[in-house]
Structures are given as structure tokens and as C-alpha cells.
Write a structure and sequence with these properties.
The complex is a heterodimer of chains A (445) and B (419).
Chain A: H1 11-17, E1 35-38, E2 44-49, E3 55-62, H2 76-83, H3 95-102, E4 106-111, E5 116-123, H4 127-140, H5 145-164, H6 166-178, H7 192-197, H8 200-210, E6 216-222, H9 226-235, E7 260-266, E8 271-279, H10 289-300, H11 306-314, E9 318-327, E10 332-340, H12 345-362, H13 366-383, H14 387-400, H15 403-415, H16 418-428, E11 435-441
Parallel strand pairs in A: 2-6, 7-11
Antiparallel strand pairs in A: 1-2, 3-5, 3-6, 4-5, 8-10, 8-11, 9-10
Helix pairs in contact in A: 1-13, 10-13, 10-16, 11-12, 12-16, 14-15
Chain B: E1 4-9, E2 15-20, E3 26-33, H1 47-54, H2 64-73, E4 77-82, E5 87-94, H3 98-110, H4 116-135, H5 137-150, H6 163-168, H7 171-181, E6 187-193, H8 197-207, E7 228-233, E8 239-246, H9 255-265, H10 272-280, E9 287-293, E10 298-306, H11 308-328, H12 332-348, H13 353-367, H14 373-382, H15 385-395, E11 402-407
Parallel strand pairs in B: 2-6, 7-11
Antiparallel strand pairs in B: 1-2, 3-5, 3-6, 4-5, 8-10, 8-11, 9-10
Helix pairs in contact in B: 3-8, 9-12, 9-15, 10-11, 12-14
The chains are: A alpha+beta (445), B alpha+beta (419).
Amino acid sequence: MTLASLTLVALCVALAGCATTPGSRTGNAGAATPTREVLGNGVVLITQEHRAADVVALQVWMRVGGRDEAPDELGLSHYLEHMLFKGTPTRPPGSIDRLIEGLGGSSNAFTSYDFTHYDVVVPAAHVRPALELLADIAVNAAFVPAELEAEKKVVFEEMNLTEDDPEKFLSRRLSEIAYRGHPYGRPILGTRELIQALGRARLDAYYKKHYVPQNMTLVVVGPLTAAQVRPLAQATFGALSGPAAGRRSAQAVPSLAGGRRDQVARPEQQAYLGLAWQAAATALASEDISAVDLLTYILGDGPSSRLNQTVREEKNLVQAIEAVYVTREQSGTVSITARLDAKNLDATEAAILEVIRRVRSEGVTEAERQRAIVTAESAYAFDIETAEGLAKSYGQAETTWTLDNELAYLGRLRQVTAAQIQAAARKYLAEDNIARVRFLPQGTR
Amino acid sequence: MTEGYRKSVLPNGIRILTERMPHVRSVAVGVWVETGSRHESPARGGVSHLIEHLVFKGTATRTAQDIARTMDSVGGQMDAFTTKENTCFYVQVLDEHLPLAVDLLTDILLHPLFDAEELEREKSVVLQEIRMVEDTPDDVIHDLFAAQIWGDHPLGRPILGTRDLVTGFARDGIAEHFGEEYVPPQIVIAVAGNVTHQQVVDLFGRGFNGFHHAAPPRVASTPRLGPGVNIVHKALEQVHLVMGFPGLRHAAPERYAMFLLNDVIGGSMSSRLFQEVRERQGLVYSIHTGAQAFADTGLLYVYAATDAQNFSKVLKSVLKELRDLKKSGVTADELKRAKDHLKGSLMLSLESTSSRMNRLAKHEMHLGSFLTMDQMLASIDGVKHEEVQALVTQVLDEDLLALTTLGPLDRRNLPAELR
């Protein structure tokens, strides 16, 4: 259960890969586009027939995440994600895991800054009990005090785990630096002090406030038609009630002007370097997203990308290097991360910046543009082969962007010109607003 | 779902297995070679893994860059991995690019250059990879555990080799090993996706035409699992532990009973260890068990990570759960749930082209045949309660228990009986 809260990772491909255009060849035997409807109580229902296998993906996307937490509520979105599988008045502790696994299913959950996401995959015959379960935990979680206390230690262990993994820790540190003073820069898991002091009343109040029908999107993808899913969804999620959602709009992201730096001594033998820029977001400059995506592929996706060719192959400065673009509502992040010997840190940073400078001044070639589009298309085709992957792309788009944007995405991507890619580099990848984090093996400086 | 499984054997002995998946757009192509770290002589420890890297670094007609760009240009994903018993070279592409994928895979296996300059470069890449494994606690603990339980047996050696051995590899030895081991009788080709069997046979038949070589001799030496405790110190936030018992080989007739037993102990979220140690006591974030199998042996292991101060509690709880299980046995309810879980997991795993490609190859290499989903489901249903019970008694023998810990821990943190 609860993979939980890698702060940056995981979202990237969902928006980087994005969406089928109606009429394009998707390989799905069923309908090529999803059906979206809003139930009477505000729950958004998205369904798509998908017959690649006899399994159904059921996902609940909640419009609540790290950014909705008050300073004394840090970590509550993630804590809820852990507690929801613990039980309701009619489902004792342990019974939910047993039920899902008894159906032959699997479950997972994930907390981010803009959303919390619950994911169940079951053989197609068991859609009904799985939907009943999801609707039940969405509003009836019990928060038994003993369970609530026991889970604290689990979350502390999860914090330790992140700290021991250099790549996870680097992406967390980069977020902290790039978004200092904004909720996107805060730890999704919260702090030890706040979690230690967390009581049932506070968690329950947060839950009651945010887990309301208007904040929910249910996505169902599998060998079922919308007409088959609708009555089941009506009987379960359609029957939920709750107050209106009062989600505040996210606060504006403070500028990174002047840049920020951080350096951390670490137990690893190898050094790590991370550079991050703020870029187009789904709620802001959304029209730039396709160009930034292609730019990121050209810079740092795969062995023939510029960073790999220059910094790794030609100059032999790093063992691994990649560029990743993550979009959120209020800010996207382009980050370049590398694993290297500590002695190469300065030279690597200079080489990366030189690659960026050249893209900004000279632009990209038509061959690079073509490759980036092919890469995006293939990555998307691979992602949506599973019911779970397809449901994820729809759920995240509905929650943090719009489904229409998602569906139009690949078509737009193909229209992006080389000049627009260069313009995106000039607009976002300036040298004076970089967040930089270095991990140094202990004993070096 | 129907399963379009087919098998052919090329005149040179290469086996080709395909499964047609008409609902998808991609195709997963794996060329597997039945050679891995356990087939290396001690002086060649790590050579299979180095070869796995080197074949991508240039052929008679393609530079390393050409190889990388070929796949990049069609948005394909290319990868490879080496295990103790086999090596897999793997490509996932959109179906229309299958001919290109086959052309590339046959080229790297028929005509690798092993260029001296690339060799030196790749050695340093592998040395960095060794360091990275050492820096990743939940990876390196499995190497430490294998070394502890199998000692000098080839299964006890790390797949990546050691720094000294990797540094010392020369081109001739590498090319010789490649020539002996990467040969038709040891090659299994598995393809799953939107393709026909004939297409695959034609493409690989042409690609590997004229490639003939006898299989290398194999000297069997059955590994024996050595019990005991090994405490490895390291400054980490958490203490990681692996505990294991002798298990079953791949083709063991009781293997389904073993999968179910693993599920009951720690292979699922409703398992005894997950529910007790994580859910009830909250002592860990990660705890799971696994049934690991090889051609001639296997093991059942427990992995967990926790704070040093909680370590003793975790270990005691794990031992208590295992002893309880031995004393009172698996319940009928548990067994039913484990069967449902295992069957469901199998069905869920049918979705992606790469998981089906893996299944094709593994069935062939481990069992010499292919089992349909229905056959596997029936085998799971057919496991009797007493068969699982017999395994509990046979496997959970504390005299044979081996334990490795990694992290800030000393012997005083161990329960008295293990000190």
C-alpha cells in the first residue's frame, strides 16, 4: 500500500506524455475517448472502455494535497492517505487489505502538492465491491486512536527512507530550495514534531473539510462501457454527501530571481548535482507546456539528448544525467540531475550551463524536434497500455488541468515549432534564477 | 482473454516464443541468454554484466552512438539486465518498428566490437555502478546476504563483480567468454505484443542465419545455504535486515505451495508480518518476504528496515510470527485469501507487453514449457492445505536460519538466541 509522496517524481510522464487525440490510432478496441460526466453531488465521473486485459482500474483523485495545509497541518494530506486504508465503522483494521487482496486486486495511493490519489486494480468481475470500498473510505474513515498512533512510527520510517535514498532526497531538496516560502517547497510527509503531536480531532477536521464530493474525481477504465459503470458509480459515489468544497486558490509562487544554492554532506561515495528552474504550470502559461516538454526531451531524455551527448559522452564528466519536467498547477519545474565524482562538480555545472546557453542562443534542430515528438508519442503509447496508466493520465488531468487539455495535448505537441522550443528555453531557463543543490561525499569539500 | 502462445526452434537451436496481443500498439522483444554470474569462473566474476554493457558500445557496422540513436529515433526503449542465471537484452517499440528492433538486437549479439577504448570507459561505468549499489542499502544487503549464505559457491558472488576483477578485465578474456557462452543453444527469444509469430520467426531467422555453435559444458555444483548471523556496520538512518531459510528450486513440484506460503507470511499486505509488524505495531515502513528460486536451489527470505532502537522488537516479532505459524499452522481462511490474491496478481500481470515477454522466457528457461493462465490458476487452486503445512515444517527451521543486518547496529541489539 501507500507508495506515497515522492515529491517530484512520477508526475512527469503523466503530463509529459499526455493524451490521445480523438481519431488517432490508439490500439484500444473500445471507445478511443473517455466519457466525462458530473454526478448530482458534484463527483466527476470519467470512464473509458479498455479491453487489453480483463482488469479494471478504479481511481479516486481528491482535490487536496500538500498545498492545502496550514503551517500547523503539514503532512496531514499524506497522513490521511495512510489512514484511509485502516478502516471505517463497518470495516475493522486489516479488513480492507484483506478484502482487496481477496478480490485478487492491488491498491496504491500517492500524495502530491495539488492532489491525493487512490488507485485500485481488480479483475473485472469485482468492480462493485471495489467501488463500494472506495466510496466508503472516501468519507467514513474511522481513525481508531490506536491505529492512528501506530501509523506515526510507519511515517517516521518513511521519512528515514527518503533521507537514506540520495535520488529521492535530492529531488526533495531541490523542491525545498526552488519553492522556498511556498507550499510546494514544504515536506509532503510533514515534520516529526507535527506528526508526533497529531491527534484524532485535527485529522478528522481536515478530512471532513476536504474529502467532500465536489473535490472527488472517480476514474474507471476497463472492459466496461460507460452505461455499465454509471449505475454502479451512482449507487456508490453518487450517494455521498458533504459540505461544499471551499478550496482556496493556491498562492503565487515566489520568484527564484538571483538563484539559490544549497550543499549537503552525504554518506554516499558519489556526488549528486541538481539544477532546477520554475517553468510553465497547468494553471499558468499552460500554452507553453508542450514546448517545455519537447525542450526537456531534447535536453535530457535518452542517450542522444544534448546533456547526455555533451556532458556524459564527450566530456565524460558524469555517470548519469537527465532532465525532467514536472507540471503542477502553480508552477512547473524543469530539473537537471546528475550523478558524478565530486571532483567534477564545477566542470559539470559549467558544461550544463553551456548546453543551456547554446539552446537559448542557437535553438534546436528539426531532427531534434522530430525525435522529441516521437519520444513523447511512444512514451504515451507505452503508458496507456495498462488500464491503470490510462486512468492515471485522465485523473491527473481532470484534477490539476482539464481533461480537454489532456485530450488535445498530443495534437498540440506535434504543432510546436523549433522557434517555440527556443523561445521556451529563453523564457524559463535563465542563468540567474536557478535552484542548485550539491550532495558531497563526507570528507570532500 | 485468449492467449496466442506459439513456439518455434530455429535450425541452429535458438528457441522463439511469441504471444500475440492485438489490443496494444507496442511490442516487447527480449533476447535471453542462459548465462549469468553463476556460470563465470572465479577470475571472471562480473564479466557477464560487463558484456551486457559492452554489446551496446559498438558493432562492426554501428558505433555506440548509432546504437543509442537508432532506438531514440523511433522512441523505443532499450535495456538489458544480468542475473545470476541469465542475461536479457530487451527492446520495447511501437509495432511498426519491430524489424528495426530485431536488426539491432541481432547485430549487437553477432558482431560486438569490444573496442579497447570503449572497454576502459565501460569499466569505469561499472565501477561507478558498484559504488552506487554500495550506496543503496536495500540493494547491497542482498549481495551481503548471498555472500554470507553461499560463501565460495558462484551463487554467493555479486553479479557486478568486484572492483579488482572489473579493473583487471582484458579484451581477450571477455571475447572468449562471449564466444563460449552467448551461443544459439542458450538463446531464448521472447516477443509479446501486436505481432504475428511468423513475422518474428522470419525476422530472427534471417538475422541469426548462419550462427552455429555448440553449448558450453556446464559443471553442476549444488549450493548449500550456510546459517548464521552477519552484522555489517554502516552509518545509516535505518537498520536493514535480510533473514532467510532454504527454499525451492524453480521447477520444484511444490512451487505453488511455496508461493502461497510466501503470500501468507509476508508476500502481501494482509500477510502476517505486514499486519503485525507494520500495521499493528507500526515498527517499519517496509517489510516483505520473497521466494527466490534458481535452477537447483532457492530460499525464502524476509526483508525489513527499521530504527536501531526498534530493531530488536522487529526481529523478535518476526521470529514470533514464524514460530506461531509453525505451531498453529496456516488457517483455511488465510490459504483461501492467499490463493485469491495470487490468482488476481497473475491476472493483473497480464496487462503489459513486457511482463508477458518475461513470462514467456521464464517459463521456457525454468520449466521448458509454457503454462497458460488457466493452467496456472488451476495449479494454484489445486494446492492442498497439507502441502502448505508440510512446507511450513520443512522450511521454517531455525537451525538453518541466516541473518544479515546493515546499519547502525551492534550485537547487543540482537535477541539472546541469535547473539
